[in-house]
Design a protein that fits this description.
The protein has 453 residues and is an alpha/beta fold. The chain folds into 2 domains: 2-286 and 355-452, no CATH class; 300-347. Helices cover 36% and strands 22% of the residues. The protein is built from 11 helices and 20 strands.
Length: 453
């Protein structure tokens, strides 16, 4: 087996608007607290190759992923289906997908244009650096980081969660362990490592203006400094219903908590680096598919009536109030824009779900099953229970942006994640059974990977 690692700086210029927390907030960055990176891990065994790139970004649009794959294929011959782009979902970086997530941070056109070249350069360089190495894996405890915002509790007081012994009321609804992969030369030198964990990485708030990769990015950069020459990338898991234990606090408290939560995660990964056990890798395999998930379609007349109501709300607000727009008004503008787009598609005879990519990579006993959704924990749990791989990592926010994949209970209850986000992120109506259909798609990938390997 051979592995190679590389990293490319993808930090935007200071002044770029930051993505996350809401639409049209004009969160212009005022400084760089921690640099953003595209970090690549290449693997080769049994005649097969694959590359995983971890990016400190809120997400990447489908078009950018296609460009990266084309650039890497042209330079190295690697099939596009063998390249996976995983994003941490930081809310303290730029918006590289303004054509999909419109309003959540004004894009920098130069940054959007050049980003695919930088991500591709990381992947190409990692392939150029392939050398003999041994892969190892650990699954250490990782506690005191997240809580399930849908089924557990609101974030407790800051002084409580910053205690080392703090735990959520229902830890079983979160990840309580992380996965760590290491690659070392025959002489024992650490080439690089990857850490997988499911938690919405956001510790800060809408009033923070510094660029950084949230707790995951800060932790991985810290561990790299402790291991000179090694590259450490983060792979996001199921974070759709799991928040970090500190979020939406005032700026001073947010920045304090960022270091504390990053240190907790770094401690877990550090333990994994020390405890990792060898994994035999005789082959590297990959599969990728585009699927259209079933939707709950409303009559066109209902969509038009909904649009009319929201347009009237905005009109009345503008006429009655001369003050700056409120968060509610800004959000309604985004919904109005999305509804207009959806109605235009429906009137043109379309309206089916935008195809969503699912992708699987397997190397030895490790498999990564990825999609562009912000996964709920129940979906991850279902996939792990049914997957063929002894070590299954279910990655979200990968290769493209499709909003939330909610569990069946939240789909029945409706609300923001189940009803509004599909419209905003994918331009579609709510999914009919995303838990069942996505679980089936990812477990099918797992069986195909097992058969091919």
């Amino acid at each position: 087996m051979r592995t190679g690692f590389a990293k490319v700086d993808i930090t935007p210029e200071v002044g770029v608007e930051l993505a996350g927390f809401g639409p049209y907030l004009k969160r212009r960055s005022t400084g760089i607290r921690d640099r953003l990176w595209a970090k690549a891990m290449a693997l080769e065994a049994g005649g097969g190759r694959a590359v995983i790139v971890g990016c400190d970004l809120i997400g990447v649009p489908t078009a950018a992923t296609a460009r990266v794959r084309a650039l890497v294929t042209a330079a190295t011959g690697l099939p596009g289906d063998a390249l996976m782009i995983c994003c941490s979902h930081t809310h303290s970086g730029p918006n590289p997908a303004a054509d999909q997530i419109f309003g959540w941070g004004e894009p920098d056109p130069f940054y959007v244009e050049t980003l695919p070249y930088k991500i591709a350069r990381a992947a190409i360089t990692a392939l150029e650096r392939l050398e003999e190495a041994e892969l190892a894996h650990a699954n250490p405890p990782c506690e005191g980081v997240g809580l399930n915002r849908e089924y557990d509790q609101d974030a407790p007081p800051l002084d409580e969660v910053l205690r080392d012994d703090w735990r959520p009321a229902k830890p079983e609804l979160t990840d309580t362990r992380c996965h760590v992969l290491t690659a070392r030369t025959p002489a024992g030198r650490l080439l690089g490592f990857a850490a997988y964990f499911g938690c919405h990485p956001v510790v800060c708030c809408a009033e923070t203006h510094a660029i950084h990769g949230d707790f995951a990015g800060v932790a991985m950069n810290l561990l790299e400094r402790e291991n000179p020459g090694a590259v450490g990338l983060f792979i996001q898991g199921a974070q759709g219903d799991v928040n970090s234990c500190v979020v939406h606090k005032p700026e001073p408290e947010s920045l304090l908590a960022l270091d504390v939560i990053a240190a907790r995660f770094a401690n877990a990964v550090r333990a994994g680096l020390a405890a990792a056990q060898p994994v035999a890798v005789e082959a590297v395999t990959h599969f990728r598919r585009d699927l259209a998930f079933s939707l709950r379609q409303s009559p066109l007349a209902d969509l038009k009536a909904q649009l009319k109501t929201k347009e009237a709300f905005l009109r009345e607000q503008v006429l009655d109030k001369a003050a700056a727009a409120t968060h509610e008004q800004r959000f309604e503008l985004v919904v109005v824009t999305a509804l207009r787009r959806l109605i235009a598609v429906r009137e043109a005879g379309g309206g089916a779900a935008r195809p969503a990519e699912v992708q699987g990579l397997r190397f030895g006993s490790v498999e990564i099953l990825a999609s562009g959704f912000e996964l709920f924990q129940a979906i991850k749990n279902d996939v792990v229970a049914q997957a063929c791989g002894p070590i299954t990592l279910v990655a979200g926010v990968s290769n493209e942006i499709h909003g939330y994949a909610v569990d069946r209970r939240k789909a029945r209850e409706g609300g923001y994640a189940a009803q509004i986000v599909p419209l905003l992120a994918a331009g579609t109506e709510p999914y009919l059974d995303i838990q069942g259909e996505l679980t089936a798609a990812l477990t099918t990938l797992s069986r195909d990977l097992a058969a091919a390997g």
